[in-house]
Each structure stands twice: as structure tokens, then as C-alpha cells.
Write a structure and sequence with these properties.
With about 500 residues, the protein is of the alpha/beta class. Helix 1 crosses helix 5 and helix 2 crosses helix 11.
């Protein structure tokens, strides 16, 4: 793919700059000779054919927006002259929620063949699941206990302490969701034991949670600040319990297990124009290899399916799953309609726009490529465990922290996270593999990255990069530390349903 510019599909009327291109230069792309009228930054688009005002703009052979002015050949094509046709609550009744041009077309991807590895070394837990880490978790059931939890983590650094802002002033579905996430983290196969710390008057039922986890065979202890006599007393007892739990889990040993026991979460954050061309489709190759080995891959971020949901729905194993995908996207899109806002500014975010992404449709077409090419076997709600193996879609927000938290609560032991602008985000209990979309960012943020997929632009094939990512997944499952783990990135957030009172 080494070239000055790329045309992703013969029908496209915009091309991408593979290097910074100066005004006045003449670029040849797929037989088209294009004199550039303006500077075109790395990763940004320019018109390779005349585009009239109101005409649909095509990339990947798919619609990514509509021209707001005439765009001449060689002119920079971006937010100043292209608008989204989706998620436009600011346009009121004229917004196109489900445009007629959305037809079920499946994008092609390289065949992956037989997985080179079909097993890894993991910790078999009492419930039968397999972990890739053996953490002792110190978990507050309410934000009021955060300071005690954090101080235990400072004095006993081998435990994982997770402060958060949930557990009180939440009602019904919102409270149930927060409880489900906290409990799923406590019983997660990457966790060998957990210490729950509550305040005593919160909405979250700390005692009930501890009893339920214990009944399931989870190694769990519980402390309540009001019962213990205050923060200092709870801290002192908590330190002793944390150290005891560390000793108890130290006897756990890894054993060989089939790759079919692995659940891999996929995420993209700080995306740029190369996300959908290098890192995301390369992760898609790795995803297909995991599925071919009998494992499970979770694709999330439903707001980032807008404009590409027809492609996922066409791959659904059943019509009902396809309907669930489309309904989830429309539900998220109607929120923008209800609020009367243009998604741009959040989807895509300012950093996405600076990196060359213009509309939510363009971002979505890149996002979904992380899921590879296999059929979608199930659509699950936020932070729920899949009941089938293969490619799974989870209904999460586009926020990286909330999305990763939901997939890990759903049982994912490893996360693969692509980034173009450079995101160091991690997870408290699951290793997060960072895949860079371009070489300049990989070199600039080398300490935060694990894999460079920017080599696709330098001639390495997507299949080769996908194989490297797949091998990295297996190595990390076997115990290799990721950059996010090295730096102690333990970001955590639960998607809020509301209301909060």
C-alpha cells in the first residue's frame, strides 16, 4: 500500500493522503491524475472527481456524507464542505434516520486461514472459566469508600484497587447495572479474590453482594466503614485482609487451555483516518483467527455503527440479531434527535476530526472492521455475558472507558484497543493491547503502544499485521505485560442510564 495517496474503492470520489501533500503537487491515484489545489494533511481526504453540492460522498464504496458546497478535483474534502446525513438532531424533521441508500453490502477482507496457535496458559476458576491474570481486587461498593480503598492499594500495591463514583443515589435499572458490573468484576476469571468495602448506608447492598459471591464460590471478604468504627479501623483491617488474600491466590497455577476459552474485547479510541485502513481491519484479521480457533470476540460502541449498521446486520446469524443491531443503532441515534444536536463534536470527536475523520458514517465504517468477517452470533446488553461463541456485539456507548468496562464485565479476559491519535487507556483487571494505526504516532508514543499497524502503509499486508496482533493476544494471555499494565493504567467507568438523584 506504499503510495502518496489511496483510493479505497473504485466508486469513491475522495482519496486519502498517505503522506503530507503540498498544494500544487500532482498525485496519481488508481489511474487518476489529480492536481492538488490545497495542502492535504496526512490521512485527510481530497476530491479525486468533481463533487456537486448535495452529492453523496463515497469512501470504501459507501456513503460517508453529503457535500455542502461544490468540491473541485484536488480540493481538501473535510468538515468545511461535507456533512453527515446521520445523527443530525439539529436538522429536525429533515434529518435522515434511515436513508434509502443503505443496502446490505459486505466489505471484503483477506482470508485468514488456520490459526497458528490454538491454546494458551490460564488460571482455571471454580466456575469453569479461565483467567489470564490472578488479581486480588479491592472494590468499593460505593464512592464514599474510595479513599479507604485507594489507601489500601497504596500500602499493598500488589492488589488492584478500583475507586469509582457509583453505588448510591441510583435507581432501578441504573442501580442494577452498576451492581452487575461490580459483581462481574468481582467474579471475573482474571480475579483470584476480592475484598468489598462499603460505607453502610448506601443504596448498593454490600452484604447481599458478598453473600451472593461467596455462595458462587468466589473468594470474597467484606468490610463496612460504619460497622468497623471509621476509616482508620477499616483501613487497618483491610490491609491485613488484602495481604492474606494475596497469599491465598499465590498458590494458583497456569494450565494449558484451548483458545476457545478466550474472550477478546475490541475497542478503538482516539481514532484517525487510518483506523479503518490499517489497525481496525488488521484487528479484524486477528478476530477471525480467534473465532476460527473456537474463541469469542466482542465488538461494541453502537453509536459508532451509525451509517454502517447495514453491513453488520447483513452478517447476522439470524434475522432477529440483525433487527437487534439496527434497533440499537436507531435508539442511540434518536437520542441525538431528541436532544436536537449534531453528533459531530462527540462522534467524531475533535481529535478524530483533526486526524482526518469527517463524519460518523466514515468513523463507523472503520469501527466495524475490528469485528472481521465472521457472522454475528449474538447481540447482548451492556455488561452481560455472551451465551454463544464467535463474533458478539455488545450494546455499549462510544465512550472508551464505559465500553471496555462493559465488555470486561461481560467476561472478556483480554482487550485489543486501536488508536490513531494515541490513547494510553487501560483496564483495572484485563490487559489492554494498544495497536497504533500509523508509524509516526507509534514512534512518538512508543511507551504506550504494543503493536504498530502503521506498517500496512509501508507495504506489510493486513494479514501479516493481523497475525502479529493475534500472536500478541496469545502472548498477553500467557502472561506478557502490556504497556498499559506497565504504566498502571486502570481506567474504569460504567455507562449511566439515569436518573441520578
Amino acid at each position: 500500500m506504499s503510495a502518496q495517496a489511496l483510493l479505497m474503492h473504485p466508486d469513491d470520489n475522495v482519496a486519502l493522503a498517505a503522506v503530507d501533500l503540498p498544494a500544487g503537487a500532482t498525485v496519481s491515484v488508481n489511474g487518476l491524475v489529480v492536481p492538488l489545489r490545497q495542502d492535504i494533511p496526512f490521512g485527510h481526504k481530497f476530491a479525486c472527481r468533481p463533487i456537486a453540492r448535495g452529492e453523496l460522498v463515497l469512501k470504501y464504496g459507501q456513503v460517508i456524507g453529503r457535500a455542502t458546497t461544490d468540491i473541485a478535483v484536488g480540493e481538501h474534502a473535510h468538515v468545511h464542505n461535507i456533512e453527515s446525513t446521520r445523527g443530525r438532531g439539529d436538522l429536525g424533521e429533515s434529518a435522515e434516520v434511515r436513508p434509502s441508500y443503505l443496502q446490505p453490502v459486505v466489505l471484503k477482507s483477506p482470508a485468514v486461514g488456520t490459526p497458528p496457535v490454538t491454546a494458551f496458559w490460564g488460571y482455571r476458576r471454580r466456575d469453569g472459566r479461565v483467567g489470564v491474570r490472578n488479581h486480588v481486587l479491592v472494590l468499593p461498593t460505593v464512592h464514599c469508600a474510595n479513599t479507604v480503598v485507594e489507601r489500601i492499594g497504596q500500602l499493598v500495591p500488589d492488589v488492584v484497587a478500583i475507586p469509582h463514583v457509583y453505588g448510591c443515589s441510583q435507581l432501578r435499572d441504573d442501580l442494577a447495572q452498576s451492581r452487575r458490573v461490580l459483581e462481574e468484576f468481582a467474579r471475573h476469571p482474571n480475579v483470584g479474590a476480592v475484598l468489598l468495602i462499603g460505607l453502610g448506608c448506601e443504596t448498593m447492598p454490600t452484604l447481599e453482594m458478598a453473600e451472593q459471591l461467596a455462595a458462587e464460590g468466589v473468594l470474597v471478604q467484606r468490610l463496612t466503614i460504619q460497622e468497623e468504627g471509621g476509616s482508620r479501623a477499616t483501613f487497618n483491617r483491610g490491609v491485613g485482609i488484602a495481604r492474606e488474600l494475596l497469599q491465598e491466590v499465590a498458590s494458583a497455577r497456569r494450565e494449558p487451555v484451548p483458545l476457545s476459552e478466550l474472550i477478546v474485547a475490541t475497542e478503538c479510541g482516539g481514532s484517525d483516518a487510518w483506523s479503518g485502513i490499517t489497525a481496525n481491519p488488521a484487528v479484524g484479521v486477528a478476530s477471525d483467527l480467534v473465532v476460527a480457533a473456537g474463541g469469542t470476540v466482542i465488538l461494541s460502541e453502537v453509536p459508532e455503527f451509525i451509517g454502517a449498521e447495514h453491513l453488520l446486520a447483513a452478517r447476522a446469524a439470524t434475522p432477529e440479531i440483525g433487527q437487534q443491531i439496527v434497533a440499537a443503532v436507531l435508539r442511540r441515534e434518536r437520542e441525538a434527535m431528541r436532544m436536537g444536536v449534531d453528533l459531530r463534536g462527540a462522534q467524531p470527536a475533535p481529535g478524530n476530526i483533526a486526524g482526518g475523520l469527517t463524519t460518523i458514517e466514515e468513523k463507523s465504517l472503520g469501527t466495524i472492521s475490528k469485528g472481521g468477517t465472521t457472522p454475528v452470533q449474538e447481540f447482548v446488553r451492556y455488561a452481560h455475558r455472551p451465551t454463544r461463541r464467535g463474533l458478539i456485539i455488545m450494546d455499549t456507548a462510544g465512550n472508551d472507558l464505559e465500553s471496555v468496562t462493559g465488555m470486561v464485565a461481560g467476561g472478556a479476559q483480554v482487550v485489543v484497543f486501536t488508536t490513531g491519535r494515541g490513547s494510553p487507556t487501560g483496564c483495572p483487571i484485563a490487559p489492554v493491547i494498544k495497536v497504533a494505526t500509523n508509524t509516526p504516532m507509534y514512534q512518538r508514543l512508543r511507551d504506550d503502544m504494543d503493536v504498530n499497524a502503521g506498517t500496512v502503509l509501508e507495504g506489510e499486508s493486513l494479514t501479516e499485521v493481523g497475525l502479529r496482533i493475534f500472536r500478541e493476544i496469545v502472548d498477553v494471555a500467557n502472561g506478557k505485560e502490556t504497556a498499559a499494565e506497565t504504566w498502571g493504567h486502570r481506567e474504569f467507568a460504567i455507562e449511566v442510564i439515569g436518573p441520578r438523584l
